Amino acid sequence: MIFYLRRFPGALARNWFILLALGSLLACGEGQDTAVLEIYVISSLGEEVQDAQVSIYANREDWQSGRSPVKEASATDRTGVVRFAGLADGSYFLDVVKGDTTNWAGRISTDVKSVGSFFVNRIFVVISSNQTNRLVATGGKRWRTVSYTSALISSIGITPGFVTACAKDDIDIFFKGNAYISDEGASICPGSAQQTQGTWRLLENDTRLSIARNAANDTPGEAIVWTIVQLNLQIMQLTRDYELRNEQGQLIRDINGQPLRVREQKELAALP
User: pLDDT per residue over 77-124, tens digit each?
Assistant: First the structure.
């Protein structure tokens, strides 16, 4: 913006110059929430996505729960673009959803800066349909164990194993951003808390599910890795095989000297 200052007597001219300078600073948004963020939403095929619902959050906790968005959800236009104005400088978490496609397995955050009146922060966000969308939900998706079996495998055959009753009504809660809670359900196993926090990960092209429950001192525990047999919006079927070891970490073998293995199978149903 250019200002033309007519010739005024000394003091008056100085006052006018100060006022005009202040007006210029305010016009540029100095000290105000003036950052602008444009989000370009594209599919995994690189196509522009119209009518995707986009929300932004100030922190990970609000993003995971879906509470207190900085800006209410807005839809992308026909070119796949949505704009948020009047933002403060800082980091924001992004929630982009259309049908069964989301950004939850991709880019979930961005930094925004207010550089000047005409500066726009522009980012691209890819949304896709994947296992993460089926496993989690905003606010956490609850999965109740409906079947849990175990079998002992040796060189001479397969023997049905035993799963304690308290493990057959557990509820697993999966959140966006890899947060996880294990709930003991109505039957609490001896020495267990009602709920234990942890993390989850999808591995090997989303074919395996790793769950690590925190230890008693709230530090990450050893991960248990399941093979995903089936995962849709309503049913999850898991299996895992592992070798039996004693307290010293040595393999336990059968009468023919072959390592004993355990096979566990688990089916869970999504709760409303």
Answer: 999 999 999 999 999 999 999 999 999 999 999 999 988 767 899 999
3-class DSSP string for the chain: CCCCCCCCCHHHHHHHHHHHHHHHHHHCCCCCCCEEEEEEEEECCCCECCCCEEEEECCHHHHHHCCCCCEEEEECCCCCEEEEEEECCEEEEEEEEECCEECCCCCCEEEECCCCCCCCEEEEEEEECCHHHHHCECCCEEEEEEEEEEEEEECCEEEECCCCHHHCCCEEEEEHHHEEEEECCCCCCCCCCCEEEEEEEEECCCCEEEEEEECCCCCEEEEEEEEEEEECCCEEEEEEEEECECCCCCECECCCCCECEEEEEEEEEECC
Query: Looking at residue 30, what is its pLDDT?
Result: 43
For the residues 197-215, what does the mean pLDDT come to? 93
**What would the two tokens of residue 106 be?**
């991709």
Provide Rg for the chain, Cα atoms: 28
The encoded tokens of residue 236 equal 């999850």
Q: Are 39 and 96 in contact (CB under 8 A)?
A: yes
Identify the weakest region by mean pLDDT among 98-102, 158-162, 186-190, 227-231.
Answer: 158-162
Determine the Cα–Cα distance for residues 13 and 272; give it in Å rounded to an integer.
70
- Which pLDDT score, from 0 to 100, does residue 219 have? 61
Instruction: Note the pTM of the prediction, 2 decimals.
Output: 0.79
